[in-house]
Design a protein that fits this description.
Length: 311
């Protein structure tokens, strides 16, 4: 709110949180009238930003096109939802941000059920269902791109005009985290291809050091690895040896304060950003509890009714 940055994931997170709490506890008392109004505003905003050029007046001083002019790059209508900024708070280059589109698909599925079952409002439920289907179609048509070395993978950002970026960012939602927040399965054909790309030297934000190797972000120093991305790698891994390797790297990144930070130099963990950053510490706890201590992961959403390439 303070920075006035429109990030699509900021609309999705509260919906996913409410749905997850409801499914985990059975407590529907959180679905008050005020909560309903919040859901209404989120849905209205997503619908409006489907056609940003025609329906939206939102702009921001940090949004610039390829020429440097203070305006976002143009986009085509794709059915997906335009967003100005990444979860890192950095401006998008191409404004259909695929990880956030994925999270919107999950959130809209959650909202469809909440409106139908709890609020018993079939009109709003159907609006969420329709938008979810349109966003999913857009991801499959524009977000899945064939590459010579990896086959079909998810692009990070697209514009619907033939441009895309191939990378990932450590902040969640990310491409690597797609199974974690419930969009796809770890054995999904396109996800597995994408994962191979993301955890390779071909990803411009994948960094390797003597202590750790993982995904970083343009938001912090070049070459710095983010614990968030390492934890997500562990949470989405199907290999016990990879999970334990990730755990070892995380423990080795401790500079002496027994905390995880925003990012760190993979050759010298004593060099890091943000002394106090609660997110990776909370996510690390979740990683240990669910991966090594047998605690059941919290539900995020259900996309089992959707079709995915190669499945």
């Amino acid at each position: 709110m303070w920075e006035q940055k429109f990030e699509l994931d900021s609309l999705a997170y509260p919906i996913v949180l409410a749905w997850s709490y409801w499914k985990a506890t059975g407590d529907s008392s959180i679905f008050t009238g005020d909560e309903s109004l919040g859901f209404d505003r989120a849905l209205e905003t997503m619908e409006r930003e489907q056609d940003h050029a025609r329906n939206s007046k939102y702009t921001h001083k940090e949004l610039r096109d390829d020429s440097g002019a203070q305006q976002p790059n143009p986009v085509a209508y794709t059915g997906m939802i335009w967003t100005g900024f990444r979860p890192s708070d950095d401006a998008c280059k191409y404004n259909y941000l695929i990880p956030s589109e994925m999270m919107a698909v999950v959130a809209l599925g959650d909202l469809e059920e909440i409106e139908r079952v709890v609020y018993r409002n079939l009109i709003k439920s159907n609006r969420a269902k329709t938008l979810r289907s349109e966003v999913q179609d857009g991801i499959q048509k524009y977000g899945e791109v064939f590459t010579p070395n990896y086959g079909y993978i998810y692009a990070y950002e697209v514009d619907g005009l033939g441009h895309q970026t191939f990378m990932d960012d450590a902040n969640i939602p990310s491409l690597l985290s797609a199974p974690y927040f419930g969009y796809t399965k770890t054995d999904s054909f396109v996800y597995k291809n994408t994962r191979r790309f993301l955890l390779s030297k071909d990803d411009p934000y994948y960094y390797v050091g003597s202590i750790a190797r993982g995904i970083g972000s343009a938001h912090t120093s070049d070459g710095y690895v983010w614990p968030l991305a390492l934890i997500v790698q562990g949470l989405t891994s199907t290999s016990d040896s990879e999970r334990r390797d990730v755990l070892g790297q995380l423990l080795a990144s401790d500079p002496g304060d027994h905390l995880l930070h925003e990012s760190f130099d993979p050759n010298d963990p004593g060099r890091f950003s943000r002394k106090d950053f609660g997110w990776p510490n909370a996510l690390f706890s979740e990683f240990v509890l669910t991966t090594f201590n047998g605690i059941r992961p919290q539900p995020m959403g259900d996309t089992s009714d959707l079709e995915f390439r190669g499945e």
